[in-house]
Amino acid sequence: MQSNDARLFLRALVPTLVAGVLGVVISALVAGGKGALGAVVGVVLVLFVMGLSLVVLQQTAKKFPELFQMMGLLLYAVQILFVAVFLLAFKNTSLFDTKAFAFTLLGATLVWIAAQARGYMKAKILYVDPDAAEAKSAETAGSTP
């Protein structure tokens, strides 16, 4: 993982963890221990799904840049399906409070997306490689008579 990729990951991870801790505290106050456990499960699910997707997307961008956009769309579909399967598997569970889980999952997801968008806007990532452009212009200038 490149340094700017790690920075983007941390810019999304840290606010999500803060929101997750806040969600756990609020859920513990409102719904007790099961609420706190539901909030923890929600935050862990968001961190796992979003973090893994970001890592896979960055690896795809590095190895197969032409597949970047398609992989991004595919990853969003897989994220939704994964969370949907998780929700169906634990629909009637009594292990944790499902409302605390749902609200924390939603809040952590929105914080992750907002922090990731802010991180990309603040990052100064070149979309043109200046060294490659200079080499191409020097190559073209040398080949013309």
Overview of the structural elements:
- By secondary structure, the chain is mostly helical.
- Helix content is 84%, strand content 0%.
- Helix 1 crosses helix 2 (68-89) and helix 1 (3-63) packs across helix 3 (98-122).
- The radius of gyration is 21 Å and the shape is elongated.
- The termini are far apart.
- The mean pLDDT is 85.
SSE order in H/E notation?
HHHH
Overall shape: elongated
Please summarize the sheet with the most strands: none
Number of helical stretches of at least 4 residues: 4
Mean pLDDT: 85
N- and C-termini, Cα separation: 44 Å
Radius of gyration: 21 Å
Helix content: over 70%
Which secondary-structure class do the elements indicate?
mainly alpha
Uncertain segments are: none
Beta-strand proportion: under 5%
Number of strands: 0
By oligomeric state, this entry counts as single chain
